[in-house]
Sequence to fold (602 residues):
Amino acid sequence: MTRLLLSLVLTLVAFGARAELVIEITQGVDNPTAIAVSPFDWQNGGAAPEDVAMVIQGDLARSGQFAPVDRKDMLGRPSTEKEVFYRDWRAISAEYLLIGRVSGTEQMKIEYELFDVNRQTKVFNGTETGPASEARMLAHRVSDAIYEKLTGIPGAFATRLLYVSVTRNPAGKDYYRLTLADSDGARPIVLLESREPILAPAWSPDGKEIAYVSFETSRPAIFRQNLATGAREQLTNFQGLNSSPAWSPDGGTMAMVLSKDGSPDIYLMDLASKRLTRVTRHYAIDTEPTWMPDGKSLLFTSDRGGRPQIYRYDLRSGTTERVTYEGAYNARARVAQDGRNVVVVHQSNGRFHIAIHDLVTNRLQVLTSTELDESPSIAPNGSMVLYATKSGDRGILAAVSVDGGVKFRLPAREGDVREPAWSPYMSR
Amino acid sequence: MKQFTVAGKALTLLFTAAFLVACSSSDTKEDEDAAARAAAAAAAAEEAQRAAAAQAEAEQRRLQDAVASVGNVFYFEFDSSNLTPDAQRSVDAHIALLKTNDKTIRLEGHTDERGTRDYNMALGERRANSVRDYMVANGVASYRIETVSYGEEQPVAYGSGESNWSQNRRVELK
Fold:
């Protein structure tokens, strides 16, 4: 019986691993802050359900701005303030030390304290509580707090990712999966599986719903899906293109691309009444709408000038202005919450890179050196850009910081991954 | 269509012959002559019908062979939805066959992997529409044609480089 159970567990793990991402940090900042995260003390006896300290350590390492100390180099494993001996941490050149305690079975409580080793002072302490089933998310919240304390920028670890993975089937149709995972790639959940393409996953501003395009009816259609209830609604079924769903910041409207009236144009759908308003009216390709954070204008891609470039449509005045001029191809804009940094797919020398366009200075900076880069998605704190690229002939996800200094890759254990969509901050 | 016209003529002849027989006088000799004439006419009509059917069948086979030799896939240049001369010749073969039947078809537009997915979705539609518009301009009713774009989602060649990309920039007729 034990053996049977074990093999069942292994099968489940193997199945779950299909769409799972592996994180490989390829480049960090020049002088990352050395931080030691001592294993948190599990106060309920038995084995801890989750290695909370390891989750936090992984988050800080992935940011590229921290160099966590290896556990085996630690000279002690304090979990309370009186067990902290600064000399043990100075000896291994740790600048900061994080300790903590975890308790509770149904409701979990994480208490943590952060120490400045050089100044020999406690700089911060805090508590996170929530369902034990969300232990990893609680750990990510601790990471967010530590990150903000030490960098001045709110963390974006307690967030989630959507992505599409594809398993090729040489004998027939491929398998497409829409997957939801934590920001570190852990706990992947397959939301939709299909033999027809799935693409363009997008988040609602409250992080409770998603939208995507599925070809399951043998034509493209836009769907919305509630993450908690699983309730799904088909929003469109028009002749021609039904693509690029983008939720407005107030959650009430969805921008989308339809070609029912001839050529691809941007439309707005009022989600309550399902009433459509046509935004662009041009024989060229108008596509990939995205909202400015204030909801007053949209950025979109258009080849009305001959080649794809980013344009901005002002909803109040109804005017359109061209935004990007640098290079022959700039497409699929996504805007940071500051309303200033715009990430785009930029072509130079025949290669496709992720670039960042500053709406204030109108300067464009190329961030990546890989090629065939696409689908940039910006973290809610504006620090990192997740995008899709190729490694050999496999599709993988990769991330780069907005200053280009930090890079990591997230290949899947199996198959191709593409179209990452970083969630907004999740309401608790 | 040609086949039906010939068959129609043969039928008319047949009816005329029968009518003549029915209306003829009671003279036996005349009756026999009329019957012989009618039988000959009927045989001729049948022969004509057979010949026409054979001809139509041969023509149909020729059109089908032409379609089979050009295939169901039309290829495009990078970032272009214009029919190349090669693609146009292929589509011409399909148009000739489509004019002999009333089948409905589906044109699926595809792109290579370069560029963004949603822009490619639009480009794939442009390619499918380009084939559709050419067919409609050459006499295929538009209601018989459904177009759908898959963008870069369904490559036939998975690798990178022009040798793979050129196979993926296509419209498939189904």
About this structure: Helices of chain B lie at 2-23, 28-70, 85-98, 117-137, 162-168.
